[in-house]
Write a structure and sequence with these properties.
Structural class: alpha/beta
Helix content: 25-40%
CATH class: Alpha Beta
Number of strands: 6
Largest sheet: 6 strands, mixed
CATH topology: Maf protein
Distance between the termini: 19 Å
Order of helices and strands: EHEHEHEEEHH
């Protein structure tokens, strides 16, 4: 019996870690996740004011250029004492030439005068069947925690070294990959996306 032809979905991101995460989750459903760089898809300006808007912009752009279904992720960290900042600006919080270290160091400096250190990672995933899809699948999940006083840990990326998830006494950068995938905002949003894709008959299983 001939194996079913693999479905292909483009990931609107150049992040190799995200690509591996999505590919591992969807491979069991005979879906191949391809990086948008394979199709020379350029970065698109994230002009939205919310995670949802930016994820839709990125998914639509990738679907339009490639002619294939697309998944986009927009994520960041919200800090209550800073009125939800850095939020959608998490990746460029410290300005032009921002690095992961300069971003979280700026956040630690901003937090010096605040006692409320509550924060959360947010992740929004959008799946679009094509560029004109009027009803994209949108999944959102959060990972609650607090901002640590100093960076700790070598794992993970972004703000992981200064984020202590609820239920742990160490930062996200000190968690194992399995611990992080089981609890993280992206892990939860990806599980929701798979469930929604099953419900709509996009994937079987």
């Amino acid at each position: 019996m001939q194996a079913p032809i693999s479905q292909q979905i483009v990931l609107a991101s150049g992040n190799k870690g995200k690509l591996n995460e999505f590919d591992q989750m969807l491979a069991q459903f005979n879906i191949q996740v391809l990086a948008q760089s394979q199709f020379n898809v350029s970065e698109v300006a994230e002009t939205g004011t919310t995670f949802v808007e930016n994820a839709i912009i990125k998914a639509r752009h990738a679907a339009e250029i490639t002619g294939k279904p697309a998944i986009a992720d927009d994520s960041g960290i919200e800090v209550d004492a800073l009125d939800g900042q850095p939020g959608i600006y998490s990746a460029r919080y410290s300005g032009q030439g921002a690095t992961e270290v300069s971003n979280y160091q700026k956040l630690l400096t901003e937090m010096n005068s605040h006692q409320n250190r509550a924060a959360r990672f947010q992740c929004v995933l959008v799946y679009m069947r094509h560029a004109k899809d009027p009803t994209p699948i949108i999944c959102q999940a959060a990972w609650e925690g607090t901002i640590n006083l100093v960076p700790q840990g070598e794992q993970g990326h972004g703000y992981d070294p200064i984020f202590i998830p609820h239920g742990f006494d160490k930062t996200a950068a000190e968690l194992t990959s399995d611990e992080k995938n089981a609890h993280s905002h992206r892990g939860k949003a990806l599980a929701m996306l798979v469930a929604a894709m099953k419900a709509k008959g996009i994937i079987q299983g």
